[in-house]
Amino acid sequence: MTERLPVLLAWSGGKDAAWTLHTLSRRDDVEVVGLLTTVTREYDRVSMQGIRRTVLHAQAQATGLPLIEATIPAHCINDDYERAMAAALADAARRWPTLRTVAFGDLFLDDIRAYRVRNLAKIGWDVMTPLFGADTGVLAREMIAGGLRARLCCVDTQQLDMAFAGRAFDEMLLRDLPAEVDSCGENGEFHTCVSAGPMFDAPLALLQGDTGLRDGRFAFTDFELADAS
């Protein structure tokens, strides 16, 4: 029997990362051994998505996988990010000595994927992008039909109306999105927070909080665990 390739999954807490986990879990040639998340130190939240750390930890627990966090400052430059990633991956390599591959939920942005490949190759790591090249309209509906449940936690108001913040990622949302907005938000139009799906052993009960505008551009909707003390 062929030994499966160990893979570390870049976990944002959003739908693409979650569906990447689901996709990889159905393959017999790879094994996702852990999750890797970038957290902004000052906010104590997942970078870009703005998901609370408590929700992040609950998501990781629901996947049954250990979580490695790369901590970056709020006003992060590329050097900060790359140092944090290198440190986190060194930690992962100590934990899993044969691990040298990171999977990402990238869909079609060649420049982002090329950056990841180039940056991680410098420190001896490979990149895997199992969803890359998928038709995002088809993929979005596949996620929804497959039981993934998520809500929009961040909206770029320069690309999408702020009123979409907090909405469920569902068929109604897809129908309401302007034609120029990608169904999966791959151009950064929106980001999501996943609460349920086939990659979780149980759904998370999340409470939706306020929506606020940051940097005059990004509308973040807060979510917290319903049973948080």
Keywords:
alpha/beta, 4-stranded antiparallel beta sheet, 10 strands, 30% helix, 28% strand
Characterize the structure shown.
- There is one protein chain.
- By secondary structure, the chain is an alpha/beta fold.
- It has six helices and ten strands, in the order βαββαβαβαβαβαβββ.
- The chain starts with a strand and ends with a strand.
Provide the fold topology.
Layout: E1 5-10, H1 15-25, E2 30-40, E3 45-46, H2 53-63, E4 67-72, H3 78-95, E5 101-103, H4 110-121, E6 126-128, H5 136-145, E7 149-156, H6 171-176, E8 190-196, E9 206-214, E10 218-225
Parallel strand pairs: 1-2, 1-5, 2-4, 5-6
Antiparallel strand pairs: 2-3, 7-8, 7-10, 9-10
What is the 3D shape?
A: globular
Average pLDDT level: 96
Biggest sheet features? 6 strands, mixed
Amount of helix: 25-40%
The H-and-E topology, N to C, reads as EHEEHEHEHEHEHEEE
Q: Care to give the gist of this entry?
A:
By secondary structure, this protein is of the alpha/beta class. It has helices spanning 15-25, 53-63, 78-95, 110-121, 136-145, 171-176; strands at residues 5-10, 30-40, 45-46, 67-72, 101-103, 126-128, 149-156, 190-196, 206-214, 218-225.
